[in-house]
Amino acid sequence: MAERAGRRCCLGWDFSTQQVKIVAVDAELNVFYEDSVHFDTDLPEFGTQGGVHVHKDRLTVTSPVLMWVQALDLILEKMKASGFDFSQVLALSGAGQQHGSVYWKTGASLVLSSLSPALPLCQQLQACFSISDCPIWMDSSTTAQCRQLEAAVGGARALSCLTGSRAYERFTGNQIAKLFQQNPEAYSNSERISLVSSFAASLFLGGYSPIDYSDGSGMNLLQIQEKVWSQACLGACAPDLEEKLGSPVPSCSVVGAISSYYVQRYGFLPTCQVVAFTGDNPASLAGMRLEEGDFAVSLGTSDTLFLWLQEPMPALEGHIFCNPVDVQYYMALLCFKNGSLIREKIRDESASGSWNKFSKALQSTEMGNNGNLGFYFDVMEITPEIIGRHRFNAENIEVSAFPGDVEIRALIEGQFMAKRIHAEGLGYRVMPKTKILATGGASHNKDILQVLADVFGAPVYVMDTSSSACVGSAYRAFHGLAGGAGVAFSEVAKSAPRPSLAATPSPGASQVYEALLPRYAELEQRILSQARRPLE
């Protein structure tokens, strides 16, 4: 897609699990260029499946760091061949898959700062990494290190209060601890440890980019209130770690001008600014332009909630991160494993496999389902840890089955009540100005969205979010350029395409669900305690 001449713009990058993607966004916030490089198909020499290497133990999952570097070479060459005018780029920012880590070998900064514009990056950076395959978010091999970290700070809840999450295997601090314990030589030979996001920013800077507060919150190392590295956590993971990480910065920081390598090789202007890169989830929050009191729900294979928080209450479930667009606020992520697959199963069992009949069941049953409540967890749920199907009548007596229409409404109401209860458990509160943004497969079903609006008592909007991390990164580049923390992100992004209104709360919905929510929470606790009893 060739670029129209003279169009000043910002670039948004996304270094995700399966591809590197780029969008160019003009001053009116219209996307006018996009391209991508898919690791498996465009770089088959690295032998990845889904962009990763799954090791023999099935727990260790890594990606080749030079694959990411070569993907950047490839996409920039594609842009150049298409006639893209790099001299129009005012600033760039980007996103990286969260939690992954890159280990720069001693001496790599000298190579980064003296790149030759005659050669591709991959050729020049081959010897710059102390480990060639980097641990990524899919890795679950660090259970021992997670327990060590929690023990060092006084337990899982204490770690969550400090860093926003209990210890998770994919979180970077635990990955660094594993490397130090199993390969101390590689650790000591690393002069800098980057997240995927700050690694990508470093490629553009020609020097080490700091880790930003928001992506740094996914490491089990950053004190999210004070926004400094936790000395207790650093000490529990590895020696001299603070020096290897560098100081974290606000996510809207301009971290420097683009390296002369890109000026000479591609024609960027030397004034082009690099705004701190962040994680893909925080960048998506920016791309969806959530504001105080808003949340987004992705209704996919698993359902994910993105929450904008003012006063976070860290818990043993979910994750709290520093907010990527306003340093005074926070964001939270909650994942629910039983999403579209259980919706499809109940559709098949209770609506003859027809979404049309499924919708008619929602239309023909009353809000509150006459007091019938259901819990549907065909696989072990994350939030909370429950498996099985449980149905309760209006007297809180467990029953074995519901009529088809009641079953359908019990499923959808139950899924959304659970989301509200667990969101409020992290400090989220519905406000008069709250907007809900729905994405993913089920967001195309207006009747499901009506239940969402009713349960939360807020209007539901839909928009295309297929490139939200990329587009959010371009918006964040404009924000950094405009002054970052001193300027409201909403002001910078106000001319972006608006989402479409899909559902508003039905009259009387708030009274119905305010009465049902405490019952649902109480029954959830009853199921949890019954599930734990045989284990005690």
Automatic annotation (TrEMBL):
GO molecular function, one term: D-xylulokinase activity
Gene3D superfamilies linked: 3.30.420.40
Xref: Pfam families: FGGY_C (PF02782), FGGY_N (PF00370)
Start and end residues of each Carbohydrate kinase FGGY N-terminal domain: 133-287
Reaction it catalyzes: D-xylulose + ATP = D-xylulose 5-phosphate + ADP + H(+)
Cellular component terms (Gene Ontology): cytosol
Enzyme Commission designation: 2.7.1.17
Subunit structure and binding partners: Monomer.
Function: Phosphorylates D-xylulose to produce D-xylulose 5-phosphate, a molecule that may play an important role in the regulation of glucose metabolism and lipogenesis.
Similarity comment: family membership: Belongs to the FGGY kinase family.
Name of the molecule in the record: Xylulose kinase
Lineage, highest ranks first: Eukaryota, Metazoa, Chordata, Craniata, Vertebrata
Gene: Xylb
